[in-house]
Amino acid sequence: MAGRNEDTLDHLTLLGNQDTKYKYEYAPEVLEAIDNMHSRDYFVKFNNPEFTSLCPQTGQPDFATIYLSFIPDKKLVESKSLKLYFFSFRNHGDFHEDVVNIIMNDLIDLLDPRYIEVWGKFTPRGGLSIDPYTNYGKPGTKYEEMASYRMMNHDMNPETITNR
């Protein structure tokens, strides 16, 4: 299999662009996809330990590590666009549970993955941390069953949290 070349990447507007414009409001339109060149199942994982959004009521900042894992089908998310997308939440006010579901829904719309999960580990405010988890498996496939299994067994043996 040959690697990627300019012809396979010519639709990307952000990668390699030295004049990057940062969005300061929620901007799902910055997300870009590239073709998945592999037909086998494999996980792609992104960890964003510097995620920020705002409390919709108080406007106070919320800090989190966002864990994103997915099994691609035909598309992959381009990583620079994902970074800019995450950055666009910086001034966006929403509850933690909404944030992880918005991220997942936007990526489902972009990628139509076989499987995807998003886990937000938010730092405590007022002595309470909130760590919402959501997932999705393509309906009618083994990935739907996988999503159900992972949801039912999620956090049954919580790890030691060391990123707070």
Outline of this structure?
It is found in: Cytoplasm. It is built from four helices and six strands.
Helix vs. strand class: alpha+beta
**Tell me, what's the shape?**
flat
Mean pLDDT: 88
Percentage of residues in DSSP E strands: 25-35%
Taking Cα atoms only, what radius of gyration do you get, to the nearest Å?
17 Å
Strand order of the largest sheet: 2-3-5-6
Main location: cytoplasm
Catalytic activity: 7-aminomethyl-7-carbaguanine + 2 NADP(+) = 7-cyano-7-carbaguanine + 2 NADPH + 3 H(+)
Pathway: tRNA modification; tRNA-queuosine biosynthesis
EC number: 1.7.1.13
What secondary-structure arrangement, pairings included, does this model have?
Blueprint: H1 6-9, E1 33-35, E2 44-54, E3 61-71, E4 75-77, H2 79-87, H3 96-111, E5 115-122, E6 133-137, H4 142-153
Antiparallel strand pairs: 1-4, 2-3, 3-5, 5-6
What does it look like?
The chain has helices at 6-9, 79-87, 96-111, 142-153; strands spanning 33-35, 44-54, 61-71, 75-77, 115-122, 133-137. By secondary structure, it is of the alpha+beta class. The protein has a four-stranded antiparallel beta sheet with strand order 2-3-5-6. The protein has a two-stranded antiparallel sheet with strand order 1-4. The chain is flat and about 50 Å long. It starts with 5 loop residues before the first helix and ends in an 11-residue tail after the last helix. The mean pLDDT is 88.
